[in-house]
Amino acid sequence: MMNFDFTQEQEMLRQTVRKFVDKEILPHMKEWDERGYFDPNILKRLAELDLMGVCIPEQYGGMGMDYNSLAIVCEELERGDTAFRTAVSVHIGLNSLTLLQWGTEEQKQKYLVPQAKGEKIGAFGLTEPNAGSDVAAISTTAVRDGDDYILNGQKTWISLCDIADHFIVFAYTDKSKKHRGISAFIVERTMPGFSSRAIKGKLGIRAGNTGELFFDNVRVPKENLLGEEGEGFKIAMSALDNGRFTVAAGACGLIMACLEASVKYCHERKTFGKEIGRHQLVQQMIANMEAGLQMSRLLVYKAGFLKNKGRRNTRETSLAKWMACDFANKAADDAVQIHGAYGYSNEYPVERYLRNSKAPVIYEGTREIHTIMQAEYVLGYRQDKPLRNMLPAWEEK
Ligand SMILES: Cc1cc2nc3c(=O)[nH]c(=O)nc-3n(C[C@H](O)[C@H](O)[C@H](O)COP(=O)(O)OP(=O)(O)OC[C@H]3O[C@@H](n4cnc5c(N)ncnc54)[C@H](O)[C@@H]3O)c2cc1C
């Protein structure tokens, strides 16, 4: 039985996030983006609204809502700015849900519970200067020493690098085993030998914090190994199934923002004696945005449906992420086009949308990686098995 209705609780959640974005994010975005300023108070406010653990079970400090509720939060936040959706993507999608899936009870109590309450912030360190799409090319190492592991290496392009308290970090415990020799660790910012540095001069997500992590003989207790030694690659891929879902949902929010701005401008601006919205070639761009939004949402909510059932969803999530981010990138390009020269200035928000729309086409699997994945599924070169520790099904509400 298919059901396209949201629950009353989900509708209220959307209204809550929308009001918050309208009141506390949008009025500041031009300035924050210009200054390249990430406001950490936004995360505190999201915590007060119980959103930092929206889909984490109540027993671990969260709100206990389902995956499509997480999608709603991401959509509405990215309608404000991609920076804040990205923060939720790494905190909940890549970190907290990964702890929920792979963590021991002690790890959940120590790290997940404060993260779900928003008292601590989580992030995800996989990418390195010489390893992005090719995860097995990482060179960070973790060497066992008594009851600890000693981490050495460097990560780059890590969201919330200067903000997060806890990071899930991937390192080789046995390089000879290739990707089966990667392990995952929970690293705290306060551990001696850890440092971070923001990257300046980004094209977009300027109001976000992105940068490098350095590990100089960081001693991590063995209790902070996530999963088993050698399970890091599998853990990273399962984390990406959740992260990509949040990115896809956020892209729908960016399309909504493009539509809002463009529809308003279509009614305001007149050429050749009529509103530009009356010109068919402008209508074509508006129609494409609407089609992109509706198709992306269907893919996102379908992936959410599978996640709620605890079913493997790598294929569906990859498709949703690929399509939604491409549609959002195109919608932002068209939104600038509709605004003509004004769209080229930060007097209007659409140039920020265009700059922000690019990173999601690169992170959490580039457009090319998702294209290859989809082709391989169809050609039968790639098949998914159910994962160990699949999250339990959410209760139908
Ligand atoms: C704003 C931002 C935030 C980020 N946040 C995080 C984070 O929090 N944590 C984290 O770990 N990482 C993060 N990243 C990094 C991101 O995940 C990587 O940039 C991404 O995985 C791509 O890797 P790369 O940049 O090294 O590109 P590469 O892998 O070097 O790819 C370069 C180009 O080659 C193409 N390519 C590569 N392999 C193939 C292939 N087999 N076939 C066809 N084409 C191919 C790619 O599609 C791309 O066009 C972030 C990036 C950005 C921009």
UniProtKB/TrEMBL annotation:
- Could you tell me the keywords of this UniProt record? FAD, Flavoprotein, Oxidoreductase
Lineage top rank: taxon: Bacteria
Reactions catalysed = a 2,3-saturated acyl-CoA + A = a 2,3-dehydroacyl-CoA + AH2
Show the GO MF annotations.
acyl-CoA dehydrogenase activity; flavin adenine dinucleotide binding
Pfam families, alphabetized: Acyl-CoA_dh_1, Acyl-CoA_dh_M, Acyl-CoA_dh_N
- All copies of the Acyl-CoA dehydrogenase/oxidase C-terminal domain together span 230-376
Query: What is the designated name of this protein?
Result: Acyl-CoA dehydrogenase
